[in-house]
């Protein structure tokens, strides 16, 4: 007896595209997506998604669990390709278009993609790249439109299991070579329900602004959530702070997701412009991907109120793990909140025991949102899971007496100076408080006397000068002397990946 034969006759496999189809049946002519002048009603969206699914199966001859890839900036077509591929059982590797041609080639070859979708700029960059497994490259816009128009929707689409792979985002490579993360349909579908319960901005009446790159796991899931529940999504393909705040008010946006880099840019516009464009409709702001400095949180609350800001913590492998709600933003400093719905969290010390309150250890999570493993990397998959299937991505954390979670740093970023464990994030939080610092990152560098010493990379206002002595003077009384940076480098921008995480491997190469 097969697995399906054991299921009750009323059982239906969950799918993201199926839920979008249900939203279409309720209101087919409702606007679902808009990107510039380009827009789709739910009826138009489902028709095109069905044609894309047909194209994968009948034209491209791909089968369930085959892989494809996409290298593109945000667009309606990006979402249509993801939905069409998933409905056909094709797992799509979502690749950052800002990567070099060599990096994109390595990922496409690693994931064994058979088809590659590219936007116009990426097509030009990849013209001379040799792919080992790709048999067709489809350029978004003209070639994609021709391909869609030639395909006809069919009814007998394959049955996709919830545990089949939905997408394969690649880890950022902040700690080494990128790995393909096998994200199952089930994990993202159940997370969408958790997001609706937690954030309150995903009803059919809500209007969401998608500004984060869809190649990033969070950017994709936050863009898909509104149409999963029958809402509306305004898509942006590049980050222009003034354009963003104008859209918030003009489009009567009720929710948007961003990373710290976005909020730096938006707040940099100044209070006068922000107040003039403050939308009365806005009820939810979500930050994720990297730590949001407390100073930035306070500015967001000051402009948009104390009932809108959420800070989520999670990973590509584990989905959303915790969330700090608006009521706690100014009460729980440098905190990432409580477990996300359906999530359990434990913090484990080096002895393998669960930590006491305020004791630092490695964070593990268990939830329905976990990945299926790393593509072709069983060793790394085993290292990420304990014997009970709990996941760790190497982050260090602590819980307070109320069970709230505080991310201390990445385990691999911890610095040992003079035998003392130092967590760079703590120093970064202090540096962000300096009035002339726009952005900051701290790493450990070799030191003859101390073993390792701290080096701060800073981006300053108007390219102003900041010396080591000036930084030490500012840090005086705020942190112990052993934690003060012994070196300072002023740079134009802190290198970050598409999700906003600092690329400390890149910083180490600059040292």
UniProtKB/TrEMBL annotation:
Domain named AMP-binding enzyme C-terminal: which ranges? 426-501
Q: Name one GO biological process term.
A: fatty acid metabolic process
Q: Give the InterPro entries listed for this entry.
A: AMP-bd_C, AMP-bd_C_sf, AMP-binding_CS, AMP-dep_synth/lig_dom, ANL_N_sf
AMP-dependent synthetase/ligase domain boundaries: 22-375
Name the Pfam families on file.
AMP-binding (PF00501), AMP-binding_C (PF13193)
Q: Which residues form a coiled coil?
A: none
The UniProt GO MF terms for this protein read: medium-chain fatty acid-CoA ligase activity
What's in the keyword line of the UniProt record?
Answer: Ligase
**Which family does this protein fall into?**
Belongs to the ATP-dependent AMP-binding enzyme family.
State what protein this is by name: AMP-dependent synthetase/ligase domain-containing protein
To which species is this protein native? marine metagenome
